[in-house]
Amino acid sequence: MVVIIFGIATFVSTLIGGWLAVKFKDRLHLIMGFTAGVLLGVVAFDILPEIMFIF
């Protein structure tokens, strides 16, 4: 049952993301830049504590 819920959630999130990409086509570069920054921030804050414990 959980697999079906996750499958539906994945479908809906992909559908909404595609719809937003088509709707905001003229601002897509800003949205992708923001998303890339968030992704880099999450990776940095996830890895940074692990690096500090090594030293």
Rg from C-alpha positions? Answer: 17 Å
What is the H-and-E element order?
HH
Give the helix level as a range of percent: over 70%
Strand content: under 5%
SSE layout and pairing:
Layout: H1 2-23, H2 28-54
Give your account of this protein's structure.
With 55 residues, the protein is mainly alpha-helical. It has a domain of 31 residues. 89% of the residues lie in helices and 0% in strands. It contains two helices and no strands. The mean pLDDT is 89.
Short description:
This protein is an all-alpha fold and 55 residues long. The chain has a domain at 25-55.
Task: Name some characteristics of this structure.
55 residues, 2 helices, 89% helix, flat
